[in-house]
Design a protein that fits this description.
By secondary structure, this protein is an all-alpha fold. It contains 6 helices and no strands.
Length: 91
Amino acid sequence: MQLAETLDVSQQTINSYEVTRRRIPVSALPVLAGLFDVSVDERLGAGNKKPAKPRPSSKLQQQLNRVMALPRSKQKFVIEMIDTVIQQQAS
């Protein structure tokens, strides 16, 4: 249910992805990679024959993962706050 909310799709759509009736859209890959703390390249096996050493997540990455687990409306709120802070710094 949380994954469906995060991707803004129905639970039936998630089920279709799981049983390979539907393909996950490319646009969802960065979100999924962030949720599972892997890079898109790692998930797609982009030419790495030797698995990369797992790196400890930075505090920022851990926070981003927590934000991604929030309901969509709360994610939007957090993004708006971040945008405000960035805009203030740019001024």
